[in-house]
Amino acid sequence: MALLFLSCLLILPVLMGIGHAMQHYSGCRFSQGIAAKIIMGMAGISLVWTITAFFLPLNTYTEIPVIAAGLFFFFKEKLYKEWYCLSKKDNILLLIITFIILFSSSFYPFILDHFGYYVPTVRWLYTYGLVQGISNLDLILGQMSVWHIFQAGFSGIADPFLRINSALLITYTVYIIEKKSWVQLCLVPFFLFFTQSPSPDLPVLVISLIILNEILNGNRNTAVLFGLSVWVFAIKPTMIWLPILSFLYAIFIIKSSFRKMALGIFILILFFFKNLWTFGYPVFPVALGDFGISWKPDPEVLRLSSQYAVQKTYDIQYSYDAIRQFSVVESISHWLFLTGIKSAIHISFVITLTIFIVYTMIKKNRVLTCICIALVTKCILVLVFSAQYRFFIDVFFVVFFILCRSHVSRKSAISICLGLSMASIGCLTFPSALQALVPSFRPGRFMGNFERQQLHRPSIYHYNRSRSFKVGNLSFHVSEKYPFNFDTPLPAISESYIFEYARAGVFPQLKDKRDIRQGFRYKKLTPEEQHQVKEVMHTIEKSYQ
């Protein structure tokens, strides 16, 4: 916890300094205040590092110049004085919530994607940068979220514990206090569960609420609003409603010219190019927009992944063949009434969206209508592709914020925030209680207990058990008796993909056996390579016996 405090003490001034420089030299001002500068710094650095990662790894050599530049502008422009503008009461509130955030961040990571997606992605970016066709090695690595690019760039010196989300949540708290948007304080306790990992869910939830608040308050900086909205989409494409909203707001409410869309269009092009480079298609994991790229994944592997996504929609409670047999009515009813907590979430989602649609129709407000159109469009797309609850959880926060933004006072918000924060910390400290209360909440099973060392440094898992194999020209590592590769030496392949590749009759190969940075492609297996893959599969299966 103490080390996380020092980390934030370095990162926040750096981001504020870069953000101030961006606003000063570009003339693009998002909003007034400390938080606005930090968010601009986050967006600017992440985009610069995205371009850099095509050519260089995001290690200390790319981190040091950014830290130096950020601190230079922070002290040269005396930006620290802006922190003194907060009142004594606000400073006390900020310190209390910062303590809560840092304490929550110090617990063991428990989101499964932390081990199978977040950490491996950050390690690849830190070691090699953006690698062409890396989705052929491990499909999920093809995402390479812009947020993980941002995290990777700070993972050498400023944030080796991968807790950048704690700095973001502190920034969000600063924004709430500066803008006196007290209702958003009630949401902070829910976001505490995203601070142990570099989860892209937290930045897209937090920043979308900030942009939404700016739109509802009549912010006319449509160029920056649209640019930041596309940046959020680049972090996680399921947030497509935000750029739709910003576009509708700019064109139909503010009457901006299309030239104001230039920044957002540039970010969108960069996002598409990044995905083409790592995945072979413009938007991960959808195999739409085939440009005939030679390093795109094998069609059979994509088909198997698509089938699994359909099963995830139903919480793996039905086979893919069974789901295909569902009628339209059965598809809806089975989705609504799954066994466990997912059913309650799905039903609540339908009720929440219905309430918001009715509320919009009653209010007959143009901005609300734009928000409703954007949300409904997003929900339709999610329901069509993969209706997993994590893809529409933002709807709950958006609707709550809009319905309650004028009805929660500062005093009430603080009471609710502190009360719910204690409950959240209780769940993190005593995970067995959460497991008993909600046994179908799977991530609860992976929560680690509180340890005294957390007061000094955050808890981190170590496994360090793997086996080495070779198929064709690719030497690789597989975690031993464990499905994820969060600390397995690179290049690493998840054991599940070994079996998928064998089923598809393909296997990843290096484009240049002397240089991993040249990337990967898939290759049809020769008889000799088929034998090598069978040996690998046999070794993996034997390890579990």
Q: Summary?
A:
With 545 residues, the protein is mainly alpha-helical. Helix content is 59%, strand content 4%.
Instruction: Quote the average pLDDT.
Output: 92
If helices are DSSP runs of H or I spanning 4 or more residues, what is the number of helices? 22
Strand/helix succession: HHHHHHHHHHHHHHHHHHHHEEHEEH
The major β-sheet equals:
2 strands, antiparallel
Structural class: mainly alpha
Strand order of the largest sheet: 1-2
Query: Radius of gyration from the CA trace?
Result: 23 Å
What is the distance, rounded to the nearest whole angstrom, between the alpha carbons of the first and last residues? 40 Å
Strand content: under 5%
Shape: globular
Beta-strand segment tally: 4
**Share of helix, binned:** 55-70%
Give start-end ranges of low-pLDDT stretches.
none
Task: Walk me through the topology.
Blueprint: H1 2-26, H2 34-52, H3 60-76, H4 88-105, H5 112-127, H6 146-154, H7 164-179, H8 188-191, H9 201-216, H10 222-235, H11 241-253, H12 262-278, H13 299-313, H14 320-324, H15 328-336, H16 341-363, H17 366-385, H18 394-404, H19 410-429, H20 431-437, E1 466-471, E2 474-479, H21 495-504, E3 506-510, E4 520-524, H22 527-543
Antiparallel strand pairs: 1-2, 3-4
Describe the structure.
The protein has 545 residues and is mainly alpha-helical. The protein is built from 22 helices and four strands. It has helices at residues 2-26, 34-52, 60-76, 88-105, 112-127, 146-154, 164-179, 188-191, 201-216, 222-235, 241-253, 262-278, 299-313, 320-324, 328-336, 341-363, 366-385, 394-404, 410-429, 431-437, 495-504, 527-543; strands at residues 466-471, 474-479, 506-510, 520-524. The strands form two sheets. A two-stranded antiparallel ribbon has the order 1-2. A two-stranded antiparallel ribbon has the order 3-4. α2 (34-52) crosses α6 (146-154), α9 packs antiparallel against α10 (222-235) and α19 crosses α20.
